[in-house]
Amino acid sequence: MAINVNLAPYINEEFVVTGAWGEQRTGHIHAGIDMQTRKTYQTGVGQPVYSMCNGYVTTVASNSGYGPYVIIYNPTNHDLWLFGDMDSNRTVVTGQTVVQGQQIGYEGNPAGTASTGLHIHMERENHGNSQWYGGYDDSVDPVAGTGIRNERY
Q1: pTM assigned to the model
Q2: Is 133 left (phi over 0), alpha (psi -120 to 50) or beta?
Q3: Is the four-CA dihedral 71, 126, 142, 74 of positive or negative sign?
């Protein structure tokens, strides 16, 4: 079943949850939520991904855990949003100010991350500052207040 929500990293797109926050994975607990539109925007590139908040980009990077990712800090409520497993063609840079609904990149399927198709991985932290810690113990439910259900399709 596709989900209709009031706030999501997709705009005017149906999507499904393919990985829940708090789900037990091999060797760790899933610290975010995985979502996918199951569409291809361009050859091998997924749908556009949009910022969940106003704020500024603290990090645009890539690693073996998150693949290409973007971290956005909202100084109003101190939320940090990480969007991982993106396509390498992100549309923002570190230090850039963003507004809610601004495109930040595309769904991806990065090699080396155990990804199984075009999707986005989304995590949220809130420590009262812009420092990202990573991992389930430092995360908060990324779907609280969004209308997205924290359950797999």
Answers
A1: 0.90
A2: alpha
A3: negative
